[in-house]
Automatic annotation (TrEMBL):
<protein>
    <submittedName>
        <fullName>Succinyl-diaminopimelate desuccinylase</fullName>
        <ecNumber>3.5.1.18</ecNumber>
    </submittedName>
</protein>
<dbReference type="Pfam" id="PF01546">
    <property type="entry name" value="Peptidase_M20"/>
</dbReference>
<dbReference type="InterPro" id="IPR002933">
    <property type="entry name" value="Peptidase_M20"/>
</dbReference>
<keyword id="KW-0378">Hydrolase</keyword>
<dbReference type="GO" id="GO:0009014">
    <property type="term" value="F:succinyl-diaminopimelate desuccinylase activity"/>
</dbReference>
Amino acid sequence: MSGLPFLTEPGALLDAVSSSIKDITGRETKASTSGGTSDGRFIATMGTQVVELGPVNATIHQVNERVLAADLDVLTEIYYQTMIKLLA
């Protein structure tokens, strides 16, 4: 076991997440392994698609760590739209 990064190959999950982000925020995205490590590295080795998507983490692991409520609203809509696309 290691903290090695993982990168999901393009597929339905990545497409749904990317297009939902574009639809909701107008931003183009790209897959990246920047940031910290997570349990996603274990799931990715099973051959399934993994995407980590969360709020802006400018204060992560710092005193007064916080997230804006507005960021959570946007994230909720992205998750919802992603599920709609995957289940369509």
